[in-house]
Amino acid sequence: MRVAVVGAGSIGLAVAWRAAQAGAEVVVHDPEPGSGASRVAAGMIAPVTESHYGEAALTPFMAASADAWPAFARELEAASGLPVGFRDIPTVVVGVEDGDRAEVERQTELYRLTAREVETLTGRAVRRTEPLLSHRVRAGVLAAEDRAVDPRAVHDALLAAADRAGVRLEPTAVDDLDAVDADRVVIAAGCGSARFGLPVRPVRGVVLRLRAAPEQPVPRTTVRGYVKGGSVYIVTREHGEVVIGATSDERGFDSTTGTAGAVHDLLRRAIELVPETAEYHLAEVSVGFRPGTPDNLPLIGRLDPRTLAATGHYRNGIALVPATATAVAALLAGGDPGPVAAFAPQRFTEQEET
């Protein structure tokens, strides 16, 4: 079977790799591999702390993908010969002011619905878990089963693993799916999927990458928190990189307007939670576009007998790489894709008809 994948982000490459492993002849079409959300993402694998109200259908799929990540990371590193920066690192969620702490309590009710390990901590206990937290943090929540990975390293490894598996990369854009010479076509083009009629919109996010000197301490957990009503996260890497994010607004593909304010807000919130952040070097400001759908759930499934969608992963693209690749590989082989019925691309058309 000849498979064409449109999009060489992490989702598209993982799908291509799995399809090639199953014996397909695979070509990936993308003029700029990894130039989308895969490059900007922070890499949190957070089935607990990425839970959001109204997105309950995503919970079992997120859980399955999070549980698959350790084995997936080992397999990917073995297949590519490259590290992916996978870390078994818990998350603490904290608030500073009374309103922020109330929001943490509200989110904790949602976190408990995931049926995963969630522990409420006193201020002393949460600062013992994360010593770099500000003394103003009075309480928090620990999500011990959250993890993290380096998305840029994952993308590099997927490129190498796909190449070793025989996947061919075609550095051209696709605008007409009928012109693609393949038995099956998978749309995995992130925000670019909209050009094929899929309901995907760009949700802009600003992410900062800081660099700690070798002698500087960095958080040993992923820190998520609320400061005066605004949210922020801090994710560390083993080599001293500290990722701070992320804003969220809808301005089309505008990558310039308002970014100075976004940087200010993110740094202010991060420093309020972890004062040591102020001592790091600001190395990079990135602006990316998350592929959102009307209900913020991904599009995974058949569009027609020849065409499949694997896009619209919004905030959770990296976290959902293993589960999405497995599901799409099963669909390509005519097998059971697992719990993806809620993500059928036709769901919006069916709603309009009723």
UniProtKB/TrEMBL annotation:
GO terms for biological process: thiamine biosynthetic process; thiamine diphosphate biosynthetic process. Gene3D superfamilies: D-Amino Acid Oxidase, subunit A, domain 2, FAD/NAD(P)-binding domain. This is glycine oxidase. It catalyses: glycine + O2 + H2O = glyoxylate + H2O2 + NH4(+). One of its GO terms (cellular component) is cytoplasm. Pathway: Cofactor biosynthesis; thiamine diphosphate biosynthesis. Residues 2-331 form the FAD dependent oxidoreductase domain. PROSITE patterns: D_2_HYDROXYACID_DH_1. The gene is thiO.
